[in-house]
Specification:
By secondary structure, this protein is mainly β. The chain has one domain: Lipocalin. It is built from 2 helices and 13 strands; from the N terminus they run E-E-E-E-H-H-E-E-E-E-E-E-E-E-E. Keywords: Plastid, Transit peptide.
């Protein structure tokens, strides 16, 4: 007997507004499952032995597919907590509209998942980081800055900046680690807004079993939309002697949970970030 259900609110991409002017279309998500097992009281969803979750958005498809498991209670609890975490961050616009209560709820569920899965050891499993990841949530955005707890444009109505999708692209062979952000900057009427994609190219190294150190190499900006004919250009980096130690281009974070479709990281300032793996179309 097969069961199929729709969970359209899961991993919804709400309007990513930092101003009151733009509203991108919501994400359409679907959830399909095989034979019915006990339900999660939190989400009202079945927990099949193998679950396929396909998340559609305007930028492609997010693949969320469980590894083959033996159906143990521990495995089922981890999968249930993953779905609970996705549900908890849904509607928070990656943390930009989160309240203090929202931050605490996400933190609680993330800790439950980290505890249930156990410590991460990437010394023999670094390839788990390989691929392109989409940011679903960052507690740093609660600071109302695009830079989180670091430097960045402030959010608010005086600066018509809209944050689009944010990705991390990791290549464990070349040790490349790119942070990619889509940004729309408002212009005076009647000029159209300026759409840009900023790529912060880093190199990374593994420190210990789960800490990742990244060092900025360059920042490349590519315009799109009406200005797509402009070639990409690099933003010059200030010499280290002119750069504050707190913004020297080197950062670190710990991977506290990772599997083939979800990753949780914690930054040096305590930021909690949740990513899902992206399948390029």
């Amino acid at each position: 007997m097969a069961a199929s259900s729709t969970f359209s609110s899961l991993l919804r991409s709400p309007p990513a507004l930092l101003s009151d002017h733009l509203s991108p279309p919501p994400c359409r998500c679907s959830f399909s499952s095989s034979p019915v097992l006990p339900r999660s009281s939190r989400l009202g969803l079945t927990l099949p032995e193998r679950r396929n979750l396909s998340l559609k958005s305007t930028v492609g498809e997010v693949s969320y597919r469980d590894p083959t498991t033996s159906g143990s209670g521990a495995d089922e609890r981890i999968e249930s907590l993953k779905l609970k975490l996705l549900s908890t961050v849904s509607g928070l616009n990656r943390g930009l509209v989160a309240s203090l209560d929202d931050l605490q709820r996400v933190e609680t569920v993330a800790k439950e998942l980290e505890t249930a899965a156990g410590p991460v050891d990437l010394t023999d499993d670094l390839d788990k980081l390989q691929g392109k990841w989409r940011l679903l949530y960052s507690s740093a955005f609660f600071s109302r800055s695009l830079g989180g707890s670091g430097p960045g444009l402030p959010t608010g109505r005086l600066i018509p900046v809209t944050l689009g999708q944010v990705f991390q692209r990791i290549d464990v062979f070349s040790k490349d680690f790119d942070n990619i952000a889509e940004v729309e900057i408002g212009a005076p009427w009647p000029l159209p807004p300026i759409e840009v994609t900023a790529t912060l190219a880093h190199k990374f190294e593994l420190l210990g079993t789960r800490k990742i150190k990244i060092t900025l190499q360059k920042t490349t900006v590519k315009t799109s939309g009406n200005l797509s004919q402009i070639p990409p250009f690099d933003i010059p980096r200030l010499p280290d002697s002119f750069t504050p130690l707190s913004n020297s281009g080197t950062w670190g974070f710990e991977v506290t949970y990772v599997d083939e479709n979800m990753r949780i990281g914690r930054g040096e300032r305590g930021e909690l970030r949740v990513f899902v793996r992206v399948v390029d179309m």
